[in-house]
Each structure stands twice: as C-alpha cells, then as structure tokens.
Amino acid sequence: MDQIHQGIYLQIDQTDKFKTINFTINFLEPLQKANISKRALLAAILENSNNTEKTPDQIAVHLENLYGANFSLSHYVEGQTSILSLSAICPAPQFLPEHEDVLHALVALIKKNLFEPAQEAGVAAFDQAIFNREQNNLKHKVQAYMDDKQYAAALATKSLYFGADNPVALPTTGRLADIEAISAANLWAYFEQLLVQDQIVITVTGDVAALDIKRIFDWPELSPRPKQTELPLFYQQPLAPEVNQGQQQLPVTQGKLNLMYQVPVTYYGPQYFDYLVANTVFGGSAQSMLFMNVREKLSLAYYANSNLDAFTGTVMVQTGIDSDKKDIVLSEIKNQLAHIQAGEVSDILIANAKKLLIDQFAQRSDSPFGRNLRYLFQFLQPAVVMDTPAFATAVNGVTKAAIQAAAANFKLQTIYAIEKRYEDATD
C-alpha cells in the first residue's frame, strides 16, 4: 500500500479478471459516540446531492450517462474504528464503444459531491432543504430498523453487554435523539474537520495503469493528515463475574432469546482460526449444532445462529422462539456448546464448516468489492490473509482439539429475551 501523503493511502490491485473498475474511499477515525450519527447522515447527504445536482434523481441521471456507473456511501464500525466508506464501480474502457474513459468522469462527479456539497447561501451550513430531507430519511430508516424485533433484540443485547452509552454498543446509524440533535451548521463544521483529520484509505481493483490511478486520486483538496497514532481497533472489556440478564414484554407473536459470550480472540490474532471454525460449528451456518439440533431436530426455534465478532471479542447467539419455551431453549443452547467443549462433534460437521468458510472466502476473492474490503482490513490489521490457498491452509489446520479449546473459552456474559405480551400480538 502506497502513501500518497501523510495519512492518505492507496492500494492498487491490477487485474484483468473483471470487466469493471471498482474503488473505495474510506475515511477512518477512532469511534466516538458524538460522531456516529453525524457520519451516517453525512453518508446520505454526500451520496445524494452536490451544489448543482440536489436530488438523488439528478445524480442518477448523471450516472446513467456514464454507462451505468454508480457509487454509494455508508457508515459502519469495526471494533473501535469508525469507517465512512464510498464504494464506486464503472465499466472498464475496453468494454465500451470508442473505449470511453468513464473512470475520470465518475471520479469528477464524486469529487463534486465530496468537495462541492450544496451549501446554505452565505452560511457555513449544508443546504437546509437537503439537510432536512436526509435527516428525516435517516430517522425513518432508524425507526424501521427498530420495528424489526430481531434487530432490536440484537441491539438490546449489545447494550446490555457493553453498556448503553458505550459507542461500541450503538447502531451505526446512531440513535433517534442523536440524529435529531444534529444541525445543518454543526454537521458542516464536523465535515470540514473530517476532511482534514480522518485517515484515508483508497483501494482500486481492475485493469488499470498504476501511474494513471495515482494521478487520478492525488487530490489537492485532501492535504496531509496530522501525524496520528495507530487507529484503535480491538475492544474487549473485563470479564463480568455474573451473567447479566434483561428482558422485555412486547406484543409480538415470536419471542427472542439472545446470548452474548465473551471470547479471548482478535481478528487474525493468535488462535483466530480456531475460534472462527468453532463458531461456525456452533451456530455459524445452516449445518451448525444450533441450526441442526435446536431448530431442526428439536423444533425449539424459528431461527438459531451465532456470530463471531473478533473486533470486540464476542459471540452472539440469536434465536426466535415461542416465549414459553425460553428456559428449554436456553438449556439446549448451553447443551450444544457443552457437546463441542467435550469434543462430541462429528468429523463431517467440522469438514463442512471448514469447506463453508473456505468457499465464502473464495467467493469474496472473486468479487472486486470483497477484495477492496480485504485491503482495507489488511491496512487495519496487517496479519489479514489475502489469498485463498493461505486461508484454506489456516482453516484446514484447525484440529478438533483446538475447536474444543476455543469452545471452552466461550464465557456466557449476557442473556436477553423479548417475551410475548398477550395483547394484540404482532410480529
């Protein structure tokens, strides 16, 4: 990865494997509670407007004239790093009539959205009408998410485990109250700060010339960043002596039961692959212990899965259940983990879990955006493996004993349930 200027990095993956040119521009800062909603709202404003094209429809028309080129912005979080990411795609010139250069035109549009946003006349603030539109859209999006009880249960589980005000526990959109507290002026001030302070990682994948790409992305609008220490990435809190429990009664037809385990692992750190395979065996696939036994064999859950977050050292189990079966389901989840800890797992299940992980990795490698994301993660964590054979070797090297040892370190910390309230129950 080349450094264009201090704090601005460029990774070029020259390949003729794809008929498109794909790139990401990632603005990185340490995760801060006060900025989560601002970054989510910025993503919407900068995607959908600039100082002359002020609606999504106008941006879409512009992109249609670029042979269907496209870009989008999003905000997400990995551990303690906040990522405001722009992803873009355009056809490679050799596949266009007259070999037209769409990349330069797409970059010009993106630069206009980033550096010439619609501004309120004579004021250091975003155009008020655009701000109001995108703020309201984001509020509706957050409310729609919260109406999804599976999402709401997952969020409540994280809040219970990490603490309600811990930024690691917050949704990447922020909370409604935080969104409502943003103004067009204070968002503009924050955006100006972001442009000069965030570390920036640009990744490009496609059949491109390296020197041309370096010229295209050496933007005078982006000055060298202040010298910074390494971005904080991993988060792990002290192990609680007792399991923290919480529940809500809501008018739902399907209850929810979630568990949060703490695990001593970091993304691509020591024993990472042991925990990756152990989680896949436990509940990370449709052939896992939770799915095949709790859901299929015993019919105790409508869904049952687990997810490893190696940036926060957690495994979250999520299930949809009949509320009156909560205690039985909880017992059976613990029972399935105990089987893994005792080594009572078939060789076929382990082999299938490994194959699934390798196939998923290979599929992402066949996707330009998957490759771009992996380059970003490699910037954050240099130990990240980039090629499928090396990943397969690491996964296949995990033994049953290593899976047992990893499972033995799953420490239950949180139990959260949404139970049915018997009045006008709806999903």
Features:
11 strands; 427 residues; Cytochrome Bc1 Complex, Chain A, domain 1; metal ion binding; six-stranded mixed beta sheet; alpha+beta
Mean pLDDT: 95
Strand order of the largest sheet: 1-2-6-3-5-4
DSSP strand tally: 11
Name the CATH superfamily classification of the largest domain. Answer: Metalloenzyme, LuxS/M16 peptidase-like
Rg for CA atoms: 23 Å
Q: Report the portion of residues in β strands.
A: 15-25%
Share of helix, binned: 40-55%
Which shape, going by the Cα principal axes? globular
The parts where pLDDT drops under 50 for at least 5 residues are none
CATH class category name of the largest domain: Alpha Beta
Main beta-sheet strand count, sense and barrel state: 6 strands, mixed
Order of helices and strands: EEEHHEEHHHHHEHEEHHEEHHHHHE
Helical element count?
A: 15
Task: Report the structural category.
Answer: alpha+beta
General description of the model:
Residues 182-356 form the Peptidase M16 C-terminal domain. This is Peptidase M16 C-terminal domain-containing protein. Pfam families: Peptidase_M16_C. It comes from Agrilactobacillus composti DSM 18527 = JCM 14202. This protein has 427 residues and is of the alpha+beta class. The chain folds into 2 domains: 2-216, Metalloenzyme, LuxS/M16 peptidase-like (Cytochrome Bc1 Complex, Chain A, domain 1); 244-420, 2-Layer Sandwich (Cytochrome Bc1 Complex, Chain A, domain 1), CATH 3.30.830.10. The chain has helices at 36-48, 56-64, 102-115, 128-147, 149-162, 176-180, 184-197, 210-216, 272-282, 289-297, 326-341, 347-365, 368-380, 388-396, 400-408, and strands at 2-5, 8-14, 20-30, 70-78, 81-91, 199-206, 244-250, 255-262, 303-309, 314-321, 411-420. The strands form 2 sheets. The protein has a 6-stranded mixed β-sheet with strand order 1-2-6-3-5-4, sandwiched between helices. A 5-stranded mixed β-sheet has the order 7-11-8-10-9, with helices on both faces. It is globular.
